[in-house]
Design brief:
It is built from 15 helices and 4 strands. Strands 1-2-3-4 form a 4-stranded antiparallel sheet, with no helix packed on it. With 532 residues, it is of the alpha+beta class. Belongs to the outer membrane factor (OMF) (TC 1.B.17) family. InterPro entries: MdtP/NodT-like (IPR010131), OMP_efflux (IPR003423). This is Outer membrane efflux protein MdtP.
Length: 532
Amino acid sequence: MIHQRIRSSNVNSPSQWAFRLLLCLAITPGCASYERYCPVVISPSAVEHQLSSVPERVESIQPCAHHASVFAEVGGFSLADGVTPDEAAFIAVMSNPSLRTLRDDRGIARSQIIEAGILPNPQFAYSSDSPSFGNTAGARTADSESLSWDVSKLNPRASRIRSASLSADAVNLDIARQEWLIAQQARQAVYDLVALRQQIDKLQQAENVLDQNLKLVEKAEQEGNLTLVELSAATSASALLRTTVLATVQLERDQQLQLKRVLGLPADVPLDLHPGITLPIDGEPPEDYELFSLLDYRFDLQAQRRAFDAQDQAYRAAVEAQVPATVVSVARARDTGNVGTWGAGVAVDIPLFDRNQGNVALQRATRDKIYDQYVQSVFEARSDVSIAVTRLRVLEQQIDATQLSVQSQNQLVESYEKLVEEGSGNVLLYYQAFNDLAQSRVQLIQLQRDFIDAWITLENAVGDHIPMTRTEPAEAITPLEEALQLEMPSVPSSADDQTPETNKAPMDNSDASNGVSASLLSLERSSLEVPR
């Protein structure tokens, strides 16, 4: 009889089995949804494959709607055909390694949203007490099971989710801003490369003229028609211009490597520019106060506003978290006398010391800091716009002044030419004036390059494209380029091309000077009055 009672007391009631079954159903899905570990190893072969496959991936990528504000619509293109400024911007946005690194922040932001929305886990507790001493006759093992849940964490959950979502929006806007800057940097690199190649072209044309004249002067000096002074002057002028050409060629090579770096292409990948790219310099920048209204749409300023809203929600969540921690629980227990009980409980913290006041103060101070940073960014953006507009206006004046200087130097070279032809001119001053004219032409192209760089800087400060007016179509030669066109002279290549009088009689100094000046200044000089 006693044995039967003890055996029946060890049988679990249906309520116990239901409680335990419910607990197993709650635990099993959580265990089944654990993510498995996926190892990733950095190997040289994988890195090399990632770097070497960039050119093939670039030509197959298509832009999405997100990049519509970053660059113009780009159709199919091939690197072998050369790139335009817009195509360079597209390639840079799609393949620049720094942008790929920044885009990884989106995954971090999405994970923060997931983390903010996760509900707190319930807690299960089980305890067992076996009779060990005293009057243990007829006693059994006592046990208890409880299930509890901290409901106080539900209060700030909505604010935390909104804060994480706004932070993710801020991350996306920051990435868009960096994409914009990289695209603009690619455009600027293309125009800089175009300007350097134009400078090299002008310098090489002048260098060819001086080299051909140097040969004539050497021959005239050997025949005794010119002195060593004229030969030294011609040699010095040619060497000086050659030094300038080599320095500019080095800058052009460095700029080409810089362009490949911005585009995310390896240095050994062949890359050329599309033919027909010109330097658009005919632009009148608006007033700075007219551009201030566009700053509201700048990606980074929008990102800072999103970050402020996110921090405001974080501050709200900290305030809502001041509610004392509250834990509700359901328990089942059975004592040693085989008496079972069901119960419910609530545990509440007494906010005597910790009322989350430290976190509240921290979140409020952080919100104030982000607000001040936004005001500072708006101030700096407006200053950048004003500085860029002022620089563009100064560059316009410098371009006009340089055009007048080129025109004056052109007239000066013509004057020296006449004096040398008459035999009363100084050959040293003549070569110096010719070199100064070539340098001024190069300086004019440099000012055009600086104007484009300043215009791109203004667009970066505004955060939007500013159309540049033109007086000629993009594919045509602009009046300024036509004015700077330096044509090669027709120089006699041998003694057979000289006149019979020159072949019959030796040349005197004045005749030799005529030959030198004719080869130097037979080039066509178009009018330098460029309409703007």
